[in-house]
Amino acid sequence: MFDSLENHLASPLFSPIRIRGLELANRIVMAPMTRGFSPNGVPGPDMAAYYRRRAEGRTGMIITEGVGIDHPSALGQAGLNEADIPRIYGADALAGWRHVVEEVHAAGGKIAPQLWHQGVMRQKGSGPFPDAESMRPSGTWGPFGGHRSIHPDYVAATFAPTRPMSEQDIEDVIDAYVRAAKDAVSIGFDAIALHGAHGYMIDNFLWKETNQRTDQWGGSIENRGRFGAEIVRRIRREIGEDMPIFFRFSQWKQQDYNARLASTPAELEAVLAPLVDAGVDVFDVSNRQLTKPGFDGDPTTLAGWTRKVTGKTTMAVGQVGLNREYYDDRQGNISEMIDNIPEVVNLFKAGEFDLIGVGRALLNDPDWTVKLWSGREQLPYDVENLRKLT
Predict the structure, then answer these.
(1) What does pTM read for this prediction?
(2) What mean pLDDT, rounded, does the chain reach?
């Protein structure tokens, strides 16, 4: 990929990796981040050019921003460019994504869509289908008063309980994920990524605060994992054995940054075991700060523990190249570029993860990856770049 790997600090991150039938030239992955530049949910030529620039910048793989699956309550958040969040259903949107994939492939890149249902975070009366009923496993949004940056008006608009999902509701949502995966294969995507984190639908089933069901879909850790596992299992059955499935999970939720799916490594293993059995190939561990220990009393990161207890390929994400979290930016405490690559490389060499997810740094500078290798200076961080399609 590059001329020489000898004596380069970041050289371990530029080694190839194979996951099922997917071959990546390096370990750097563009992490998914919602943008909202797809009018009426349809990605246009500007989106194709945007993702192509990251592929031209030698990023090993791109995971797109969250894309709405074919379910009426999948999307809806007033004030979030809601009409411009991409979807992955309908001839026009699928044609748009096909062009995105073709442009990324023409630049030598790999790309996967992140399939998304907002679950309890979907705001009633918003989105492409404002009359649709929001879907929640047990009707609850989560605990009130948790540490978060969500605007109080949004909390007020979404906190009220709804009816629990019926068996038919659950089947309908699972089927929508499977249709999206099948369409992604037909378009030419290289992998499937599932958003199972941050307080959205799959995470709503995993987290006991939003899943208080007492049937097969709730109660025990194993039952709370059944929904996500069933999605993975059915997708694998439909797409075959060659294409890898990525699964993003997080301890923290938008409802509560201090939330936990697991308080110990043993609990983490129990949470992830159904997903391992169902066929997840890569766990995308969203930890807000990737170097932070996963549990008290041990320096191992959450990604490191995930790799230990699952034996699966693991991707770490959180503040690569930056000194603050994304939510600090939203509160006006703007991040700055820093060189934390030595620490990232040390964790990689210690076996804590196999892939490294880069978010805002790659949004800010499409050539971030090639500049890391060549030693060229990164662009100064400009939070306005996150609001533009550049």
Answers:
(1) 0.95
(2) 92
**If we measure between CA atoms, which residue out of 208, 247, 205 comes closest to residue 225?**
205
What single string gives the DSSP state of each residue in 12-54?
Answer: GGGS-EEETTEEESSSEEEPP-----SGGG---HHHHHHHHHH
CB contact at 8 A, 249 and 315:
no
Assigned token pair, 181 = 């995966």
Q: List all residues 6 or more positions away from 67 whose beta carbon is below 8 Å from its beta carbon.
A: 85, 86, 87, 88, 97, 113, 114, 115, 116, 180
- CA torsion angle 134 34 247 249 (round to 10): -80
Q: CB under 8 Å to 178, separation ≥6 — which residues?
A: 231, 234, 235, 238
Q: Residues with Cβ < 8 Å from 32, sequence gap 6 or more?
A: 63, 64, 65, 66, 114, 193, 195, 248
Per-residue pLDDT tens over the stretch 340-362: 899 999 999 999 999 999 999 99
Distance in angstroms (rounded) separating the CA atoms of residues 143 and 316? 27
Catalytic member of 89, 177, 200, 381: 200
Distance, in Å, from the CA atom of 122 to the CA atom of 71, rounded to the nearest integer, reads 12
The alpha-carbon radius of gyration of the chain (Å, integer) is 19
200 is catalytic: yes
Whole-angstrom CA distances from 106 to 51, 297, 350 are: 11, 47, 35
Q: Which of 103, 104, 82, 98 is nearest to 38 (CA)?
A: 82
Q: What is the dihedral of CA 31, 72, 190, 325, to 10 degrees?
A: 0
Query: How do residues 28-50 score in pLDDT, each as one tens digit?
Result: 999 998 888 999 999 999 999 99
